[in-house]
Design goal:
InterPro entries: AAA+_ATPase, ABC_carbohydrate_import_ATPase, ABC_transporter-like_ATP-bd, ABC_transporter-like_CS, P-loop_NTPase. Keywords: ATP-binding, Nucleotide-binding, Repeat, Sugar transport, Transport. This is Simple sugar transport system ATP-binding protein. GO terms for molecular function: ATP binding. With 510 residues, the chain is of the alpha/beta class. The chain has 3 domains: 6-238, P-loop containing nucleotide triphosphate hydrolases (Rossmann fold, 3-Layer(aba) Sandwich), CATH 3.40.50.300; 246-336 and 420-510, 3-Layer(aba) Sandwich (Rossmann fold); 352-418, no CATH class. It contains 17 helices and 20 strands. The protein has helices at residues 46-53, 76-81, 99-104, 115-129, 144-157, 174-189, 201-207, 230-238, 297-304, 327-332, 344-348, 355-363, 375-387, 404-416, 434-449, 461-467, 490-497; strands at 6-17, 20-31, 35-39, 61-66, 69-71, 84-87, 162-166, 193-197, 210-215, 218-224, 256-266, 272-282, 286-290, 312-317, 320-321, 337-340, 422-426, 453-457, 470-475, 478-483. The strands form 4 sheets. Strands 6-7-8-3-9-10 form a 6-stranded mixed β-sheet, with helices on both faces. A 6-stranded mixed β-sheet has the order 16-17-18-13-19-20, with helices on both faces. A hairpin with a 2-residue loop joins strand 1 (6-17) and strand 2 (20-31). Helix 12 (355-363) packs across helix 13. It is globular.
């Protein structure tokens, strides 16, 4: 067997930020022609390690070798010159430019480079890696998958042979994921090395050759994909045994709780973000919403909860018309509704406040006098901290200094304490580690068992299918289908996410 070539070797890498050690003596190697997955909980040190490899940070200690040669990066330009290209979860593209202009943007002499030269070089890259792009198309007209391909072409155009993909499939349909994996396999064939950062175990097991697990800033283990399994990887990530199954709680689906009829909502540009949306929700049901990012998920949540203006249609809650009612008016009608927004520290909580103060934001409505009694809120904060295992030095500690998972638990604890009839959750596990994700799935099941209706917007189709009683699929502000996850496949849902043929909408539940 021929000796394999290390494209990347990081040895004894240490990086601290003040008193916080983000990476401690990490060693990490990537071979030529392999997909190497990097796994770890939030705060495990993945991003810091990759930011050193891409020239954003400089290690305090340790060495980086590229193609066997020791390198020192003082900026991302140095990393790009060494043939390393990083593709971030949030694309670094200029929306108002064409694909061609984005490819050459920022390069030397790009202003004087002829269209013919750019097109010829791009065509050679596309032929080599079996890529397809319309260079004249404006980025704002491109789909998420097209933008991903453009980002890949952009770094290949600059000579990258080592690619870092940071959570690349977050908002992809299953069909888009398969296209990306096909591209990655072709890049492997052409001798590229790919570092793949993801939380999705099924993707790791499908595409990775080797997997390195980080925990608390240290390298735990590097394994061959064929000699491990998702359970072992999860245990290595969290340091203990973990159950990866989502146990859907049993319970009877009750009466209709919410009816949304012919709902229309316009965005800031005056276009319909929602166009004739109609669906029902039932007591004790978890209704999932699947869709490519920006398909109208945000507007559905905000219209029901009274945050945004409804242009047409009706929202009926337990027979009461709450269309055009603001949150305060909805509360005054005795309707208990909780909303976990996508923006935790913008719409959900106040970052500079502590737990007690953030709980008071919800509790002050019930206060009888002009002075707020803090004592019951302090007791409630301690109860929530204990029940949800929130890691904070104190209930008086500013929440902006906590991890994303702990911030989400505080928001969930506050909203669930209201004993809602309807719980609306927009991407409640986005960016959270595997341990916190499953804790939140358990909380959702607890609410279902109590007869609470849960509207769950998620990105992971596997989770939607395991957790939800029905999955409503939307595309460009319209419902393309409401399906039973027990009789549908990921591919069915993916087709509907892309605007495929409508399935028969089933409003009732058998």
């Amino acid at each position: 067997m021929n000796k394999r070539v290390h494209f990347i070797s990081m040895e004894d890498i240490t990086k601290s930020f003040g008193s916080v050690i983000a990476n401690k003596n990490i060693s990490f190697q990537v071979y030529e022609g392999e997909v190497h997955a990097l796994l770890g909980e939030n705060g495990a040190g993945k991003s810091t390690l990759m930011n050193m490899l891409s020239g954003v940070y400089t290690p305090d200690k340790g060495s980086i070798f590229v193609h066997g040669k020791k390198v020192s990066f003082s900026s991302p330009k140095d990393s790009i010159k060494a043939g390393i290209g990083m593709i971030y979860q949030h694309f670094k593209l200029v929306e108002a430019m064409s694909g061609r202009d984005n490819i050459v943007l920022g390069q030397k002499s790009s202003f004087f480079r002829s269209k013919k030269v750019v097109d010829e070089k791009t065509k050679n890259i596309c032929d080599k890696y079996e890529l397809n792009i319309n260079l004249d198309k404006m980025v704002y007209d491109m789909s998420v998958a097209e933008k991903q391909i453009l980002e890949i072409i952009k770094v290949l155009y600059r000579g990258a042979k080592i690619l870092i993909l940071d959570e690349p499939t977050t908002v992809f349909t299953p069909q888009d994921v398969e296209k990306l994996f096909k591209i990655m396999r072709k890049m492997k064939e052409n001798g590229c090395a790919i570092i793949f950062i993801t939380h999705k175990m099924d993707e790791v097991m499908e595409i990775a050759d080797r997997i390195t697990v980080l925990r608390k800033g240290e390298t735990i283990k590097t394994l061959d994909k064929n000699s491990t399994n998702p359970r072992e990887l999860a245990e290595l990530m969290v340091g203990r045994s973990i159950d990866l199954s989502i146990k859907k709680s049993s319970g009877e689906i009750g009466k209709s709780l919410l009816q949304v009829k012919d709902l229309k909502v316009c965005n800031e540009e005056g276009n319909y973000a929602l166009n004739n949306i109609t669906f029902d929700m039932y007591q004790g049901e978890v209704l999932g919403i699947a869709g490519i990012a920006g398909s109208g998920q945000k507007e559905i949540c905000e219209a029901i909860s009274g945050i945004c203006k409804v242009n047409n249609g009706q929202i009926i809650f337990k027979g009461e018309d709450i269309t055009q009612k603001n949150p305060r008016e909805i509360i005054s009608k005795g309707i208990s509704m909780s909303f976990i927004p996508e923006d935790r520290l913008g719409m959900g909580l106040v970052a500079s406040m502590d737990m007690v103060e953030n709980l008071m934001l919800k509790a002050y409505h019930n206060n009888k006098g002009i002075f707020i009694n803090r004592a019951p809120v302090r007791v409630k904060a301690e109860e929530i901290k204990k029940k949800l295992d929130i890691k904070t030095p104190s209930i008086y500690y500013p929440i902006k200094n906590l991890s994303g998972g702990n911030i989400q638990k505080i928001l969930l604890g506050r909203e669930l304490d209201c004993n809602p009839h309807l719980l609306i959750m927009a991407y409640p596990v986005r960016g959270l580690d595997i341990n916190t994700c499953y804790a939140i799935y358990d909380l959702i099941n607890e609410q279902r068992a109590k007869g609470v209706s849960v509207l769950f917007i998620g990105e992971d189709i596997d989770v939607l299918m395991q957790l939800c009683d029905r999955v409503m699929v939307i595309c460009d502000g319209a419902i393309t289908g409401i399906v039973n996850p027990e009789t549908s496949t990921k591919e069915d849902i993916g087709l509907l996410m892309a605007g495929g043929i409508k399935t028969q909408v089933k409003e009732g539940i058998a």
